[in-house]
Design brief:
two-stranded antiparallel ribbon; hydrolase; hydrolase activity; AB_hydrolase_1; Rossmann fold; Alpha/beta fold hydrolase; alpha/beta; 283 residues; AB_hydrolase_fold
């Protein structure tokens, strides 16, 4: 199991992705809290309601914008007494990269992340995963339903259909059309909210991960995203998990990813993070 918190790194902020809510982190929250970490899993702004309520009234989902999400989490992170580890999944992984780009956090882990601006080609499986949103330009302004069949392809492809449907029932909410369009067409927008400073040297360490069976963020996409950081002298790492899908929150064996992410982040923060080593001794 992963390491206990150090004096300087004792908080983890978890950022959920598209089609999900903070409930998707329920197992990770318990695991990290049992080690003594303070664990925060805030919702996207306005999405604090439970899954059933967001399905019944998805208005808060339709209102999501990437810039607002980044500002929302930046305020939470700045409010912590020490720089936290930031972990995000899918579009939460994109937000993680944007926060690290701003100089926030002790370390960042972008798990199976939606790409920042600069990744030029989206794989067919990624487009297939978001087809329910991309199929109509009008969906840019909507919360788009995410039926069990789509969930089974995007999240449940390593599960039995029975287990996939059970996971859909517990976790899935409609997708934020505007957010997905912002990500999919970032390279056509000179002012895209997904643009990160991938050349920045004085940032916290960043780990990018994915799974070999991930349909939403397959290895080709995650490797391309990691490659954007080559000009930076800051620590950037990449890791693939064999046999893993996009469902990091609840796929059997999720503990492997949770422990790897935390152990890497704690070690990298203590050894390489400018936001940690600059703290006064004993703080």
């Amino acid at each position: 199991m992963a390491s206990a918190p150090t004096v300087r790194v004792d908080t983890v902020v978890l950022i959920h992705g598209l089609w999900m809510t903070p409930r998707s982190w329920e197992h990770w929250v318990d695991r990290y809290a049992a080690l003594g970490f303070k664990v925060l899993a805030p919702a996207w702004p306005g999405m604090e309601a439970e899954v059933a309520a967001l399905r019944a009234d998805p208005t808060p989902i339709a209102e999501q914008r990437i810039a607002d999400m980044v500002d929302h989490y930046a305020a939470i992170i700045r409010d912590q007494p020490r720089p936290p580890i930031i972990m995000g999944h899918s579009f939460g992984g994109l937000v993680t990269q944007l926060l690290i780009s701003r100089g926030l956090g002790a370390a960042g882990v972008a798990m199976h992340p939606a790409p920042v601006k600069g990744v030029l080609k989206l794989p067919l499986s990624t487009l297939r995963s978001g087809f329910s949103i991309l199929r109509s330009p009008a969906n840019r302004h909507r919360a788009v339903p995410f039926p069990p069949d789509d969930f089974a392809y995007a999240f449940g492809n390593t599960l039995s259909r029975e287990d996939s449907d059970a996971a859909w029932e517990r976790y899935a909410v409609p997708g934020a059309g505007h957010v997905f369009f912002e990500g999919a067409f970032a390279n056509l927008d000179p002012n895209s909210a997904t643009k990160a400073d991938t050349h920045r040297d004085g940032r916290a360490p960043l780990l990018i991960t994915t799974g070999t069976e991930d349909h939403v963020v397959p290895p080709t996409l995650a490797r391309s995203a990691a490659g954007l950081y080559r000009p930076s002298r800051a620590v950037t790492a990449y890791h693939e998990f064999p046999g893993r899908s996009h469902f990091v929150g609840g796929e059997p064996g999720w503990e492997q990813e949770a422990d790897y992410a935390l152990e890497w982040a704690v070690e990298a923060a203590n050894e390489f993070s400018p936001t940690v080593v600059s703290e006064a001794p004993g703080r």
